[in-house]
Structure formats: C-alpha cells, structure tokens
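Cross-check.
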Amino acid sequence: MKVVLDIETIPCDESTRALLPKAKPPAALVTDRDKMSPEDWLQQQYLMTALDGTFGRIVCIGMILLTHSDEVEESILLYGNNEEEILVQFWNRMRLWKGPYLITHNGLSFDLPFIWKRSVIHRIQPSMEFRLARFRTDAMYDTMMVWANWDMRNAVSLGVLSQIFGFSGKSGSGNQVFDMWKDKQLKSIAEYCMDDVYLTYGCYCRMRFIEPTPLNRLVPQYIELV
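Predicted model, tokenized:
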C-alpha cells in the first residue's frame, strides 16, 4: 500500500516562543543580508519556527491512498487547531494501512522528521517507523531527492518540478499558511495542502512513467479537528 503525504505548519505558540533567542547575535556574526532591526530579527526567528518541528505546529496533514496500480483510492485531509488529535488520527491510519510505502516531496528532510518530533512532544507512540535512509527508495520515495540524485545543489521545488512535468503548479505558497490560520481559514489551508499532495502524486507518477488519476476524479475527505 502507498500513501502520498504533505503537511502544513505554522510558527510556535506563545508559551514556546519564550524559549527563542531574545537578542540578535553579535554584529560580527551577521551578514549584510541579515542586518535588520532587533525587532525584525526576533520576528523572523519566530516565523522560521514553522520550519522546525521542535517549535512549530502542524495544522494539516494531507494524504492520498493509492491502489496497487497507483490510482487514487482515497484522499484525506486532517486539519484544524488540535495538533495532538491530528497526529493521533494520522498514526491510526498508518496502522490501519499497515505501515504504507510513503511518497513525499522533501519529506526526508522536512515532513517526516517534523511529524516524528511533534509526536514525541505530544507523547504519541508512532504506529510505524519512518525509515529515513538516503540514497534508496525501498521504504519511501522523495520526489525532490530522487530528482536531485540526493544532491541538494540540484534540489527543485514542488512548484517548479510540477510545472516542468506539465501540471498547473502550486496554488499558493507555504508562507501564506500562517496568514490563513490567523484569519481562521482552516478549510482553505486544507484545500491548499490537498493541491500539494496531488502535485506530489503527479510528480511521482511522471517519474515512474505512470499516468496519474485526474485531479477532477478526487473526492477529498476534509476532517476538521478542533
């Protein structure tokens, strides 16, 4: 069984924000590009926690379950403000699907370590082990890594790679997720995540010389967890 997945994340909550650095590093350690006011620097450090599973939070996990012939069988979005329940339901599905083969874009470096860290923090026992060994595709398939031959100098974003393969490209940017969350547009975050999951699936199919299930045939299940 195969599952394509993608996550959407936001910066840390206010209680965790207190653990972040309170002051800029010495001027000698700061490049010209990074010279900014102390206030702007602190805000940048806060926003960057959305990329760090030690601090940031998951607000959506999108998944596409594939048949043995790599056609879409089911698509699910777990989203909302209850990160703990999102993770509980995610691991329950991984158990139900018997530890599936995972397909991601940059999942080796971002999505899967992020999910694991947040699960540890919430004391949620994973129902499967993420096998994150590089230079192999027997346990999972990372479209970014495979395309770049595991050389980050050749890494290509999902938006660019999907357009190279003839798809419409991303419907937005991960930088917009926090703004959507602040505006309480949780369903919009899930819809954006679904687009990314489908593009990851499409890139995987192109790289495996498989014809993907058309997007208009997907009927996603949106499960809000509050």
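The beta strands are 2-10, 57-66, 72-79, 101-104, 140-142, 221-224. The chain has one domain: 2-224. Passed to J.P. for a second look.
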